[in-house]
Amino acid sequence: MRTLIEARGAVISAECLYREIWQDDHAHTRGIVKTTIYAIRTKIGITDFIETVPGQGYRIS
């Protein structure tokens, strides 16, 4: 979340989020990041707070 907030609306790729959070470089990043974003959206109860930008990544809207 911190990475997205600090980006101030800029799009952050799933790969970048994965490296920032897990400090690793795996090929299976999209599934893990997608699941984590879903969990955050569900937890905070605001589904459109984190916007998915198709083919690019995620941003705080």
TrEMBL record:
Residues annotated as domain OmpR/PhoB-type: 1-61
SUPFAM superfamilies: C-terminal effector domain of the bipartite response regulators (SSF46894)
Keywords linked to the UniProt accession: DNA-binding
The UniProt record lists the keyword Manganese: no
Record InterPro entries: OmpR/PhoB-type_DNA-bd (IPR001867), Sig_transdc_resp-reg_C-effctor (IPR016032), WH-like_DNA-bd_sf (IPR036388)
DNA-binding region: 1-61
One Pfam family cited in the UniProt record for this chain: Trans_reg_C
Name of this protein: Truncated two-component response regulator
Organism of origin: Bifidobacterium bifidum ATCC 29521 = JCM 1255 = DSM 20456
